[in-house]
Amino acid sequence: MSTSEALQLMIAFGSFTLTLVSTIVLILKNDKKK
C-alpha cells in the first residue's frame, strides 16, 4: 500500500467517524429534550 492510499483511507475513516459521532450527539440531544 502506498502512502497516498493510506492517507486517503485515514481521511475517509476520519470523516466517517466524525459523521458517526455527530449523529450520535444529535440523537442524544433529542432524547434529552423529551
Automatic annotation (TrEMBL):
Transmembrane stretches, start-end: 6-28
Keyword presence, Membrane: yes
Alphabetic keyword roster: Membrane, Transmembrane, Transmembrane helix
InterPro entries named in the record: BsrE-like
Protein name (Swiss-Prot/TrEMBL): Putative holin-like toxin
